[in-house]
Specification:
- With 163 residues, this protein is of the alpha+beta class.
- It has 2 domains: 4-56, no CATH class; 65-160, no CATH class.
- Helices cover 17% and strands 31% of the residues.
- The strands form 3 sheets. It has a 5-stranded antiparallel beta sheet, with no helix packed on it. It has a 4-stranded antiparallel beta sheet with strand order 2-3-6-5, with no helix packed on it. The protein has a two-stranded antiparallel sheet with strand order 1-4.
- The longest helix has 11 residues, at 86-96.
- It is globular and about 40 Å long.
- The N and C termini lie far apart (37 Å).
Length: 163
Amino acid sequence: MPPISVSKPLTPTNSFYSSSSSNVLHFTTNCPFTISKSPLCPQSISFSRRKTLILAKSSETELSVTDQEWLKKLPEKNKPLYAHSLPGIEAWLKKLGFFQSREDRAVWYIEKSDWHAQLALDITDLYIRYLKSGPGNLEKDVERRFSYALSREDIENAILGGP
């Protein structure tokens, strides 16, 4: 199937994230959007009658040679995250099991067996939102904010500790 991209980006204000299987993301939106074919989007997208956008991610996050090189260049794990390059942070997130949103390059998702989360790289802070739509028994989304002044090790432990 040729790749398809959405011309109107899905944002937290106009979309709902859920996942019913380990390799499919569902975004339900109330706003109309058009689709166009794009060679830059390797993910498969299909639509149902309810206007649910379905993105199939790769079965496992595999690190490219470039990502592996960036991981080798990472500063010590006890150094603050602001001392890391953006490509290094992106390679680190992939190594942890995150996958990057196609609509917003600063947004990342992770699906663990007992929780799902959305991570956003903001200008001054890193935000993690554990999604109630994932497995587990969260009554609402739980959001945490981490300063880039914290070490990579501390942020990793806090994020992977779950909600």
